[in-house]
Amino acid sequence: MLYLLQLVLDGLQLLLLRLAESWWELPEARRQELGQAWLDRCTEQGYGELRLLNRDDQLIGRSARGGSGMILFNTPAPA
To answer: From CA 40, how far away is CA 50, in angstroms rounded?
Structure first.
């Protein structure tokens, strides 16, 4: 399951995606592929930043601040 939340902070449009625990069941390459596809779509829609959150709202990925692409933190949250 995927939840979306849009915020505007200091004029920057930020999109937060809260991901289900099944995210960790995907192979790392697939997670990177999905993250990049979501980032590409967000950029096309005019968002300045994308953040991926787990069910506890802990950051598990974000768009790169220097350069381009997604940075994924590949450690699942403790159960």
So the answer is: 10
d(CA 56, CA 38): 20
Instruction: Extract long-range pairs of 63-66: CB within 8 Å, 24+ residues apart.
Output: 63/39
Contacts with 65 (C-beta within 8 Å, 6 or more apart), sequence order? none
- The span from the CA of 42 to the CA of 39, in Å, is 5
Q: pLDDT for 12-65, tens place per residue?
A: 788 889 988 888 889 999 999 999 999 999 999 888 899 999 988 899 999 998
b/e per residue 35-67 (b: at least 16 CB within 10 A): beebbeebeeeebebbbbbbeeeeebbbbeeee
pTM: 0.81
